[in-house]
Amino acid sequence: MPLLSRVGETFYWFGRYVERAENTARLILAYSNLALDLPRRSRLEWASMVDITGATELFAESAHNPTELGVMRFMIADPDNPGSIRSSLKMARENLRVTRDRVPREVSEAMNALYAVMADESEGAIRRTAARHAFLRNVIDHCQIVRGYLGGAMSHGLGYQFIRTGRMLERADMTTRIMDVRMEALLPDEAELPAAFDALQWMAVLRSLSAYQMYRREHHGPVKARYVIDFLLNEEQFPRAVQSCVVQAYRCVSRLPRSEEPLATIRALLDKLQNLRSAVLSSDKQMLRITMDDLQQDIHNMHNTIARTYFSLGAPEA
Questions:
Q1: Predicted model pTM
Q2: What percentage of the chain has pLDDT greater than the value 90?
Q3: What is the pLDDT of residues 38-82, one digit of tens each?
Q4: How many angstroms separate the CA atoms of 205 and 255, rounded?
Q5: In the prediction, which pLDDT does 199 show?
Q6: How many other C-beta atoms can be found within 10 angstroms of the C-beta atom of residue 45?
Q7: Is the Cβ–Cβ distance between 172 and 242 less than 8 Å?
Q8: DSSP string, 2-67
Q9: How many other CB atoms are found less than 10 A from the CB of residue 26?
Q10: From its phi and psi, is residue 253 left (phi > 0), alpha (psi between -120 and 50) or beta?
């Protein structure tokens, strides 16, 4: 059955917003875990987390201070931050409401349960570290439940392909941003820390993407930047690696009509990924940051091409 462009767009954004809520939870968890692992004399720059999400100007215009409490409130519960967990879940639920007759009832019930977690636990998570970890894990788990019902109980027609396409673009984008956790100026006194803490920070990045165990199956010995970068960019068998996300997006879009232009854009990004050299990136922090920014722009271009091809309302900001 043909799918109206506005319905396809609604599915696409539903997939993106659920993934965005989960990924924002993962990013905050990575930061919070890093704060616990570092020695007491180290100061974590909490505002760098806002920079990673691209919300620096919005945060500066808000009433929040660049402290742990201010950043947590902005990232978790600020209704004026479109990237906050609260805003992402609200938009996901509104998109689902428009299309609820096309998805299994269990998906709506799981989304309601996820929204209840947000309403009941977010305030405590902002103020207390222990409650924050439980809340973030709860958000991640419930997002996985929503995804499970979509994959296991929804027909894999055009609507499902739009949901997966949106999810894969959002996931690829956030994987590059979470890798920025390591590149940002997290620790002003980093030069004074033992080299072991370099590995500690890369381990935090891996754990935030649930990638640590799978990475260790591939690489034994100390965690090294070169291998982590290569794993998170180009490990096609790991579902949160950038290349794996882009390949999955390619397969979804190939099942849609009029897919020639979007597929050409996706192929160009795959070619770029295969030509990246992790050894060079791991030895040059500035080059790595530029590469992550470049990949994020390529993913945004993919979104614009898909929106121009399929959605009647043009290309809203991702």
A1: 0.89
A2: 63
A3: 766 667 778 888 988 889 999 999 999 999 999 999 999 999 999
A4: 33
A5: 79
A6: 16
A7: yes
A8: ---HHHHHHHHHHHHHHHHHHHHHHHHHHHHHHHHHS-TT----THHHHHHTT-HHHHHHSS--SS
A9: 22
A10: alpha
How many helical (H) and strand (E) elements, i.e. helices and strands, does the chain have? 15, 0
Q: Where are the beta strands (DSSP E) in the chain?
A: none
Q: What is the DSSP string of 159-211?
A: HHHHHHHHHHHHHHHHHHHHHHHHHS---TTGGGS-THHHHHHHHHHHHHTT-
| Encoded tokens for 303 | 């979104």
Task: Using DSSP, state whether 243 is helix, strand or coil.
Answer: helix
Asked if residue 78 lies in contact with residue 62, where contact means CB atoms within 8 angstroms, the answer is yes
Q: pLDDT tens across 69-126, in order? A: 999 999 999 999 999 999 999 999 999 998 888 999 999 999 999 999 999 999 999 9
Evaluate whether 218 touches 212 at the Cβ level (below 8 Å): no
> Residue holding tokens 């996901």?
92
Taking a C-beta distance cutoff of 8 angstroms, is the pair 270, 250 a contact? yes
Q: Which of residues 156 and 198 earns the better pLDDT score?
A: 156
CB 110 within 8 A of CB 146: yes
Residue 38's Cα: distance from chain center in Å?
24
3-state secondary structure of 212: helix
Tokens of 92: 């996901």
Quick one: DSSP state of residue 102? G
Rounded Cα distance between 217 and 137, Å, is 24
- Contact (Cβ atoms closer than 8 angstroms) between residue 285 and residue 183: yes
> Could you give the C-alpha distances from 130 to 12, 29, 115, 184, in angstroms and in order?
34, 11, 20, 25
Joined together, the tokens standing for residue 4 give 């109206």
288-300 pLDDT, tens digit per residue, is: 888 988 999 999 9
